[in-house]
Amino acid sequence: MLTNTPRRGPGRAAWCALAALGAACLAGAAWAAPTANEVLRRALDLSAEVNDYTAQVQVRSSFAGAPDEIPTFTVYFKRPDKVSIKSKSLVIVPRDAFTFGNLSKRIEEDAEIILVGTKTVNGVPLYTLKIKPKEQDEQGRVLVTIDGGRWTIQRMEVVEGQQTHLTLDWQHTLVGGRYWMPSIITCRAPNVPRADGGKGAEATITLTGYRVNTGLSDALFQSSGG
Amino acid sequence: MWAALRVEFSKFYRHRATYAGFVLLLGLSGLVVYAAAKDARNHERRAKAEIQRSLGGDFIVSGKIMTAAFVPRAILFAKLPVYVFLAAMVAMAAGGAVATEYSSGTLRTLLCRPVRRTYVVLAKWLVNSTHAVSLTLFLGATGLGIGYIFLGGGDLVWIDMQRGGGFQIVPELEAIRNLTFAYLLQGLSMIAIASIALCMSCAVGRGATAAGITVGFLLLSGMVAVMPFESLEKIQPYLLTTHMAAFEHVLDKAPDWAEIRKAVLWVSGYAATGLLGAIVIMGRREIKC
């Protein structure tokens, strides 16, 4: 026997479940890994606020032929990639260490940017990008790991063929409550001889006493080692 | 002995010719500094390019390469200024020590006094050794001093072409300390040369001949060291120039101290043999009063 019971709409619980699902989808969409270009853009935007800076630098290294410690020197940086060093001693440092990885210049060149890895460390997403020239015969590429929390560069590897030429690891500090600037940069050059005769020299660059956007003159960068 | 020493010192430094060596070395240092200052820009560019090439990446190489410390190092490593120029001056002074006095007759007068021949030789050896060391240190000091005036201070930087083009950077104070030590060791080499020249001076009658034989011996030793023959390679470990070259490695970041100690012993041996030879020959030589 058929009974004519009134048709009921979805219950409150069903509506809640639906809402939760919708929220989850929205959150998922928001969390979904950004594209390689987005990651790079966020990193570039962060450093783009810095037009120039001055910092005091100390270097400890194990490079063969170089002293273990170089007396403190001053580094000047100005966009796009000008670096000048004022030092009483001879200084040998990787240019990328002072130019925010020279990312803007790398993508100005006709480069292909691929997101090759994403992982989460201590709740912070880390994105690894591969930047390589579009020409197929070019063997060089750069792997850049970007901190998805602050959008600072955390690591950079310069690779030629199968060999890593240089690895740079960055630690950052907040300067003036506004700019995330490199505080400690560890450079490893696997093919460069160490002072003890082995291979794989390392240098630790410590930057302190930042002065950001003071309007450095171009004249400062003429006839400098940089 | 002290009286003989006092007389020898007085005689030696009374001669104007003694100071000619210092003037010539001053000129040599000035010439090297002039050349270094003239070529500084090109040299720095080449050296920085070489350092960048050896590191194989985009490295900034900033700072002075041509500094005061570069000059005494360049003089030392160019070999000719020390092995020929300085050595010739030391040999000329020591070569004339006995021979000139013998030919002029003053040695006879000297030996008429109650002084032992051994003491006379020892006094002459001490005077000439002091002169040899002072000339060597003077060469390094003037190079550094004039270098400071025209090139300024800074680290010592050089490209080690013999070891695959690697570079060496030695902090300024450490470089000066190491250079002083290297020049002191070359001073020991000059004592050995003075001893050989003194020995020759006792054996021959003319100072120029004694000096010529000594410099000739040094040049021969240097030539044997570079000749590509297996039979000559066996002689190389015994040559004076081989051990003189070992003193340059004092400037290495990790010097081979065993090799340097061995070189010190060999050079000291040459000096002792020369002195002993001079004493023996002088003792047996017939010099009538």
Unreliable stretches covering 5 or more consecutive residues of chain B? none
Classification by helices and strands of chain B: mainly alpha
Averaged pLDDT of chain A: 80
CATH class of chain A: Mainly Beta
What integer value in Å does the Rg of chain A equal? 24 Å
Mean pLDDT of chain B: 88
Order of helices and strands of chain B: HHEHHHHEEHHHHH
What class do helices, strands and sheet pairing of chain A give?
alpha+beta
Describe this structure in words.
The complex is a heterodimer of chains A (226) and B (289). Chain A is α+β, with helices and mostly antiparallel strands and 226 residues long. Chain A has a single domain (33-221), classed as Lipoprotein localisation LolA/LolB/LppX (outer membrane lipoprotein receptor (LolB), chain A, Clam). In chain A, 17% of the residues lie in helices and 48% in strands. Chain A is globular and about 80 Å long. The relative contact order of chain A is 0.18. Chain B contains eleven helices and three strands. Chain B has helices at 2-14, 17-55, 70-77, 80-104, 106-111, 117-150, 172-203, 207-226, 230-233, 240-246, 257-284; strands spanning 59-62, 156-160, 166-170. A two-stranded antiparallel ribbon of chain B has the order 2-3. In chain B, a hairpin with a 5-residue loop joins strand 2 and strand 3. Chain A binds chain B through residues 63-67, 83-85, 87-96, 98, 102, 158, 165-166, 189, 191-193, 195, 224-226, and chain B through 48, 51, 54-65, 153-155, 157, 160, 166-172, 253-254. Strand 4 (91-94) of chain A pairs antiparallel with strand 1 (59-62) of chain B, so a sheet runs across the interface.
Output the keywords.
heterodimer, A: 226 residues, alpha+beta, outer membrane lipoprotein receptor (LolB), chain A, ten-stranded antiparallel beta sheet, 17% helix, globular, B: 289 residues, mainly alpha, two-stranded antiparallel ribbon, 11 helices, 75% helix
